[in-house]
UniProtKB/TrEMBL annotation:
It comes from Anopheles sinensis. It holds the Pfam family DUF7805. It comes from the Eukaryota. This is AGAP006444-PA-like protein. InterPro entries: DUF7805 (IPR056707), Non-NMDA_GluR_Accessory (IPR053207), Sperma_CUB_dom_sf (IPR035914). Residues 247-395 form the DUF7805 domain. The lineage of its organism: Eukaryota, Metazoa, Ecdysozoa, Arthropoda, Hexapoda. SUPFAM superfamilies: Spermadhesin, CUB domain. One of its GO terms (cellular component) is plasma membrane.
Length: 499
């Protein structure tokens, strides 16, 4: 039925893909002729694929007549296997790598999404996920510009947050382009933007410059159908490796039990680099920022298509500075920071991933690290700060026998804390329970035997004092009675003399 060439031109030797004679039925995809969008795609088992650049179809017949005609319909397509960058893993996959160390010119360079039809719905695939990794060298940063994006017939638009300058997806984001950043070596990836476009009303282009040396662009589509192909699902972008700040010497990875960070500290050109807070093994993090909650984003819970960036705050936000706190699940909270010396008591609280999940949990756990970004620093240098505290979950009643007890408890968080923060002179629990007089008094921290002895001694002293006071009162009363009786006698005698 077909001959498959082995080179770019005709070759003397060809490989026969298949041969069908009288009585045999070739592979066919009959429903493909209907041109119905709701029909399922033709799979590889219903078609033929060449292993080279050309294929030949030969038809030989000797007994075809008007009564016994030979008819067939053939649909063909040229499969585009060209991809930018170098492969990550198998060459047939769509994961690609772009390394600055392998390029003579730093850019800008163009990159487009994969166009292999067999990775899309019309080629029989159900889901698509491609990773494009950009790796800069020391002293460099990655600049990504998404110029074009198409996400099929899904109702979804991407809009830019005016407070942070980042793009977020509104609507059905089952097909999207996402930007992730690895701000520190061997840290997890943190989301930095989402792009989708089904109505050509999305804000484009989207420009992102990394604070670290590694950026990943994820191109994904779920539940694809026969209408999803490289023309309806695609993106085009440009990238370049630019020089980064040279004076950043701040240590912005913290792994202490507790701490406070002044967001305005450090070199000015380094203030846009995120802080990475890493808890100890089997611990969680509690982040506390004095500020106003603006909005929350969670890629697992898409934003409504008719949603907006508007936020209602109890007081007015007087600064353009913003703080973005992101946990290991990609859930981010945007806040307007308030100065530490403000009289307002508004705070923003964020827990690391997995804190709200009930134990025991047997699924894969997300990283418990937390990223804190400080965007648009005030030129006046207002004093903004956040604090963190390591926590462990309080044992439930059903598991109290197999888990360690919780002697140091923050009741408002329902969490156990490390003994080192207890009565250290600094309030870490929101209510200040760790510095309460009831358990931080030097007297109350004495051993139970000494406290019992002192209590008995105090009781004896109190009783003795009361007995002594009663005895003194009795003697005074007797003295007064004696004096009164002597005065009465004297008066009576005088009266008798007068008479």
């Amino acid at each position: 039925m077909g001959r498959n060439g082995a080179a770019y031109g005709w070759a003397n030797t060809t490989n026969i893909i298949a041969r069908y004679c009288r009585g045999s039925v070739p592979r066919s995809c009959d429903h493909g002729i209907l041109n119905v969008t709701s029909s399922r795609p033709c799979t590889l088992s219903e078609s033929f694929v060449s292993s080279s650049d050309f294929v030949t179809l030969e038809l030989k017949t000797s007994d075809s007549t008007v009564l016994r005609p030979l008819q067939f319909a053939l649909r063909y397509e040229f499969v585009d296997l060209l991809q930018d960058g170098t492969a990550i893993g198998s060459e047939h996959e769509c994961n690609r790598r772009f390394a600055s160390s392998q390029m003579e010119r730093k850019g800008p360079h163009q990159v487009r999404s994969v166009r292999n039809i067999f990775l899309f719905g019309r080629g029989g695939a159900k889901h698509l996920h491609c990773v494009y990794r950009f790796e800069a060298q020391r002293g460099e940063r990655v600049r990504i510009e998404i110029n074009r994006a198409m996400t099929g017939n899904r109702t979804c638009d991407s809009r830019v947050d005016p407070d942070t300058g980042r793009s977020y997806c509104f609507g059905d984001s089952t097909a999207r382009v996402e930007i992730f950043e690895r701000p520190w070596h061997e840290s997890i990836l943190f989301p930095r933007g989402c792009i989708c476009n089904s109505t050509n009303s999305s804000y484009l282009p989207i420009v992102f410059t990394s604070t670290g040396r590694e950026v990943e662009v994820h191109f994904s589509a779920a539940n694809m159908t026969n209408v999803d192909d490289p023309d309806s699902l695609s993106f085009e972008a440009s990238y370049e490796f630019v020089k980064g700040p040279m004076m950043c010497k701040d240590v912005r990875r913290k792994n202490a039990i507790t701490g406070v960070v002044n967001l305005a500290s450090g070199d000015i050109e380094c203030r846009n680099r995120p802080w990475l807070i890493e808890p100890s093994y089997d611990r969680y993090l509690y982040i506390r920022l004095k500020g106003l909650f603006l909005r929350k984003f969670n890629s697992a819970a898409p934003l409504a298509y008719n949603g907006s960036f508007s936020a209602v705050t109890p007081i007015r936000c007087f600064t353009k500075s913003r703080v973005i706190i992101t946990n290991g699940e990609g859930i981010s909270v945007t806040a307007c920071p308030l100065p530490e010396d403000t009289k307002h008591r508004h705070v923003v609280e964020v827990f690391s991933a997995g804190w709200g999940r009930k134990d025991p949990f047997f699924g894969p756990e997300a990283s418990r690290v937390v990223s804190v970004e400080f965007l648009n620093p005030d030129p006046e240098g207002a004093h903004y700060a956040f604090s963190w505290l390591e926590l462990t979950k309080r044992p439930s009643e059903s598991y109290a026998l197999v888990q360690e007890e919780c002697p140091y408890l923050c009741p408002e968080l329902n969490a156990c804390v490390n003994a080192s923060i207890w009565c250290d002179g600094i309030e870490q629990c929101p209510s200040g329970e760790d510095e309460a007089f009831t358990h931080c008094s030097a007297l109350l921290r004495l051993p139970a035997e000494i406290l019992a002895g002192l209590s008995v001694l105090l009781l004896v002293l109190c009783c003795g004092q009361k007995i002594k006071r009663n005895c003194r009162r009795t003697s005074v009363l007797q003295t007064r009675l004696k004096s009164l009786s002597s005065m009465d006698t004297a008066v009576f005698e005088d009266k008798e003399v007068i008479c």
